[in-house]
Amino acid sequence: MSAPIAVSIAGSDSSGGAGIEADLKTFAALGVYGAAVTTALTAQNTNGIFAIHEVPPGFIAAQVDAVFTDLDVGAVKIGMLANAAAIDVVAAALDRYRPRHTVLDPVMVASSGERLLRGDALVQLRALIARVALVTPNLPETAALLDTAPARDEKEMQAQAQKLLALGAPAVLIKGGHAGGAESVDLLVEADGGLLRLVAPRHATKNTHGTGCTFASAIAAGLAKGLPLREAAQQAKTYVSAAIAAADRLAVGTGRGPLHHFHAWW
User: Fold this and answer.
1) What is the 3-state secondary structure of 14-46?
2) Does the pTM of the predicted model rise above 0.90?
3) Which of 57, 108, 150, 181 sees the fewest Cβ atoms within 10 Å?
4) How do residues 4-55 score in pLDDT, each as one tens digit?
C-alpha cells in the first residue's frame, strides 16, 4: 500500500522551526510522506527574520508541476506566499491540478513581527480562499482579511468566520491562540452550519515558534490519510498541544524556540 502524501507550498525557515521545515516534520511525525514547493527563503533564527529572498514565480510553477505530475498528492498545505505573483501562480496550479484537499494558512506576519506578505497582495490572498477546502487564520490574520478589529470573544470569532465563509471557503478554522485565558480555544466553522470547538490548556512557554504552520500541516496530514475534516482538526489540535507542552525540552536557540514535533519519540 502506498503512503499518503502531502505537499507544503510555503517559505523556508533556516532555523527549522516554522514554514516548510515545520510542515515536513509534522507530516513525518503523523505518518505522511511530505513533499515541498518553496515560495521564499528566509534567513531567520529564534530571534527574528533578517532577510527574505522571494522565489521567482516561474520557478514556483516549475516545482508545482514537477511534484503534481509525478506524486499522488492527497492534501496540500499552503503557507507563506510573499507576494501577489506567487499567489497567482499557486491559484493557477490549484485550478490546474485540483487537489483533493487544500488547507490555506494565510501567513502575513511572523511571530517575531516581520511582515511576510506584501501589503498589495491582500486582495489576491482573499481571492485564493475560494479555491481551498479550509482556511486557518489566527485572530490578527482574520482581522486583516476582513479589514476589521480582532475578535474579542467566541461570539465575534463565529461572526468573523461567517464573513470568511462568504468569500468562498467551505470551512474556516479561526485559531484563538492570541487570546488570553487558561485555555486555547479554536473554532472550526463550516458552511453547512457545523461548529466544532477545539479546546486545550494554554501552556506557559515562549517556545511556540511555528505553531500556526504546524497546526495547518497537521490537519493536511489527517486529510491526506483520509480522515474527515472534523477528526483531522481534532487530532491536529491534540498533536500541536502536546508539541507545545514538550517544547521546553528542546532548548533550541536563545529566543522564541520551536515546538517539539517529535515529542512522542525523543
Assistant:
1) CCCCCHHHHHHHHHHHCCCEEEEEEEEEEEEEC
2) yes
3) 181
4) 999 999 999 999 999 999 999 999 999 999 999 999 999 999 999 999 999 9
CA–CA separation, 4 vs 264, rounded Å? Answer: 20
Question: Is 210 one of the catalytic residues?
Answer: yes
> Which residue's entry shows cell 452550519?
193
* Amino acid identity at 88: D
Which one of the listed residues 79, 142, 213, 257 is annotated catalytic?
213
Of the candidates 11, 16, 79, 212, the residue annotated as catalytic is 212
Give the position of cell 502536546: 242
CA angle 95, 100, 104 (to 5 degrees): 70
DSSP 246: T
Residue from 42, 136, 211, 214 carrying the catalytic annotation: 211
Q: Is 211 one of the annotated active-site residues of the chain?
A: yes
Q: How confident is the model over 114-142, as a mean pLDDT?
A: 87
Q: Which of 19, 79, 210, 222 is catalytic?
A: 210
State the number of CA atoms in the 13 A half-sphere of 196 facing the CB.
Answer: 17
Q: Is the pLDDT of residue 160 over 90?
A: yes
Measured between alpha carbons, how far is 142 from 265 in angstroms, rounded to an integer?
Answer: 34
